[in-house]
């Protein structure tokens, strides 16, 4: 069994739209400090990654990433331990950002992985000069094919360095612990993002991806559901592969992961294996009822709109002929006369 020290697994990394702005992969960001724009200008068309600093606040259980800036970075692709990061540039940028907003501290760094690299631990140790617990955010700014695989998901993974303590008595090893990440935005930021996306959002809604603040069209909603199902399938495949590796002895047993899997299994409906057909029938019946309600509401809405159209046509015709609009009293008199004629006929 392994355990982690110095970090709680309940830590959450909150990223603001200024740092990460998700738009269709065929377009580029128009914001100066966006990480994808940094990658588009510095490493487009190559396998090189770019590195930058993250600014914000570390409040213990919540790491708030509010801003970022790019940093000159070079590394040898053949030798991952050979890399260069401009320290003086970071110091100068920090002095300038401190004059703008003193509350924003250097809390970590980002890079466009798209996955973890061998030199990440060394870079993380370097950033401990400015932060006691730097956070590393790996951002995937790949091509459209890579992004469509996980459509609807945040293409960013947050990590913090921890010490892995093992039961066999071996010295603790430094490693990265994945923490949940989410995009948060204040009202002013949401308005700014919406104005920014007006010019860059694709006109063809059939090929439109999901925007940062959520799409309103049927295509985007279906795309979100499809992306969620794809993500669920990938995670189930990962869990199955992990259990197979543990059973075959390729990986050591991690009781914390097994406890989490056991908790997931207990959330399933009781007796689901024995009553699969009954559950499917109940779900189908519930879905049919929902579809009937939607059909009736759409039908009623269409009838109401049709009546409004007829009334509007009659009012326009009266206006063209110069006839006065019928008042409520006249309508009531006509209805009384109709009732009298009906009674006389009877």
UniProtKB/TrEMBL annotation:
Residues 21-165 form the MPN domain. The lineage of its organism: Eukaryota, Fungi, Dikarya, Basidiomycota, Wallemiomycotina. One of its GO terms (cellular component) is proteasome complex. It comes from Wallemia mellicola. Residues 326-346 have a biased composition (Basic and acidic residues). This is Mov34-domain-containing protein. Residues 315-346 are annotated as: Disordered. GO terms for molecular function: metallopeptidase activity. GO terms for biological process: proteasome-mediated ubiquitin-dependent protein catabolic process. Pfam families: JAB, MitMem_reg. Signal peptide: none annotated.
């Amino acid at each position: 069994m392994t355990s982690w020290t110095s970090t709680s697994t309940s830590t959450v990394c909150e990223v603001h739209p200024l740092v990460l702005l998700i738009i269709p992969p065929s377009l580029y960001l128009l914001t100066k400090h966006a990480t994808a724009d940094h990658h588009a200008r510095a490493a487009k068309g190559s396998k090189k990654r770019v590195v930058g600093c993250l600014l914000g606040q570390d409040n213990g259980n919540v790491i708030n990433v509010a801003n970022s800036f790019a940093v000159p970075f070079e590394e040898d692709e053949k030798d991952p331990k050979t890399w260069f990061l401009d320290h003086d540039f970071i110091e100068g940028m920090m002095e300038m950002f401190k004059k703008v907003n003193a509350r924003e501290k250097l809390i970590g760094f980002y890079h466009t992985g798209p996955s973890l690299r061998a030199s990440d631990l060394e870079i993380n140790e370097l950033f401990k000069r400015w932060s006691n617990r730097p956070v590393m955010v790996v951002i995937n700014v790949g091509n459209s094919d890579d992004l469509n695989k996980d459509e609807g998901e945040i293409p960013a993974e947050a990590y913090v360095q921890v010490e892995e303590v093992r039961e066999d008595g071996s010295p603790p090893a430094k490693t990265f612990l994945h923490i949940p990440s989410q995009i948060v935005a204040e009202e002013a930021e949401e308005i700014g993002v919406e104005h920014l996306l007006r010019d860059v959002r694709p006109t063809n809604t059939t090929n439109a991806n999901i925007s940062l603040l959520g799409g309103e069209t049927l295509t985007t909603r279906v795309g979100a559901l499809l992306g969620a199902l794809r993500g669920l399938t990938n995670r189930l495949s990962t869990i199955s592969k992990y259990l197979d590796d543990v059973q075959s002895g390729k990986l050591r047993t991690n009781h914390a992961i097994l406890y989490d899997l056991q908790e997931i299994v207990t959330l399933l409906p009781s007796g689901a294996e024995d009553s699969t057909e009954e559950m499917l029938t109940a779900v189908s019946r519930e879905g049919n009822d929902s579809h009937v309600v939607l059909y009736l509401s759409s039908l009623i809405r269409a009838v109401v709109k049709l009546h409004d159209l007829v009334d509007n046509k009659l009012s326009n015709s009266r206006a063209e002929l110069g006839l006065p609009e019928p008042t409520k009293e006249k309508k009531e008199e006509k209805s009384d006369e109709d009732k009298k004629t009906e009674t006389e006929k009877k």
